[in-house]
Amino acid sequence: MTPAAPPASAPAAAPPRRAARRLAVLASALGAALALGVGAAPAALAHNTLIDSSPKNEAELDTAPEEVVLTFNADVGEGANAIVVTGPEGGDTYEDGEVAIEGAEASVPLRELDAAGEYTVAYRIVSADGHILEDDLTFTLTEEAVPEPSPSEEDPAAAPDGESADSPAEEPSASPEPADPLAAYGPVGAVVGGIAIVALIVILLVRLRRRPGPPDQGGR
Ligand SMILES: [Cu+2]
């Protein structure tokens, strides 16, 4: 009987060592794979991405939307979620109620959009990775999409009918010309006549004085 170690022990031990090496190789491969996986994981857990919306970004609408719906690639977390809609004229915002979260959708109802032009939908949502995602999109309302302006804003109607007082009244006609043209010469005629009469009298007097002249001057 030889005290040699059982030859079977060596071969028996070999497989476990090989197995261990294989395991090590496998482990390192797994490790590499895990490392790659870890490298890829942040992409899957990054900020949510907006994948759809209603209205769509840069849409031109003939009908005003009654709500805004944002659809993300991953569930939206609970927390500080907000959607703010501002109009073309600034001022008041148009959201009318709380932001509702349902899975990967965030929505908010809108009050009546009353102006044509570009609206901005600014949103802030809690991403699946726990971070906050902030961004915005726009849409445009055409004139067709907004209510008609109220009558008070329309052009004023034709001038009110209160101008009759200013309409030219019957113009007082000029005094009629004197019907008798001779009347205009009346005074002149009288003067002329008077002068003629005076002249006639003077002539008569002169002649009368000359005739009896000689007897009054008989002294020479
Ligand atoms: Cu993040």
Descriptive tags:
rod-shaped; Immunoglobulin-like; four-stranded antiparallel beta sheet; disordered N terminus; four-stranded mixed beta sheet; 3 helices; binds copper (II) ion; 220 residues; alpha+beta; 24% strand
Notes on the structure:
Residues 47-141 form the CopC domain. This is CopC domain-containing protein. The chain crosses the membrane at residues 182-206. It is found in: Cell envelope. By secondary structure, the protein is α+β, with helices and mostly antiparallel strands. It has a domain at 66-145: Sandwich (Immunoglobulin-like), CATH 2.60.40. Helices cover 32% and strands 24% of the residues. Copper (II) ion is lined by residues 46-47, 127, 129, 131.
CATH architecture of the domain at 66-145: Sandwich
**Uncertain spans, ≥5 residues at pLDDT below 50?**
1-14, 36-43, 156-160, 162-167
Ligand catalogue: copper (II) ion
Report the sheet with the most strands, covering strand number, pairing sense and barrel closure: 4 strands, antiparallel
The CATH topology name of the domain at 66-145 reads Immunoglobulin-like
Please tell me how large the radius of gyration is: 60 Å
Alpha-carbon distance between the termini?
Answer: 233 Å
Question: What is the number of helices?
Answer: 3
Q: Number of DSSP strands?
A: 8
Global shape: rod-shaped
- Structural class, by secondary structure, is alpha+beta
Pattern of helices and strands: HEEEEEEEEHH
The helicity comes to 25-40%
**Strand line-up of the largest beta sheet:** 1-3-6-5
Mean pLDDT figure:
73
- Which range does the strand content fall in? 15-25%
Q: Return the CATH class of the domain at 66-145.
A: Mainly Beta
Biased composition (Low complexity): 157-183
GO molecular function, one term: copper ion binding
Domain CopC: 47-141
Region (Disordered): 144-183
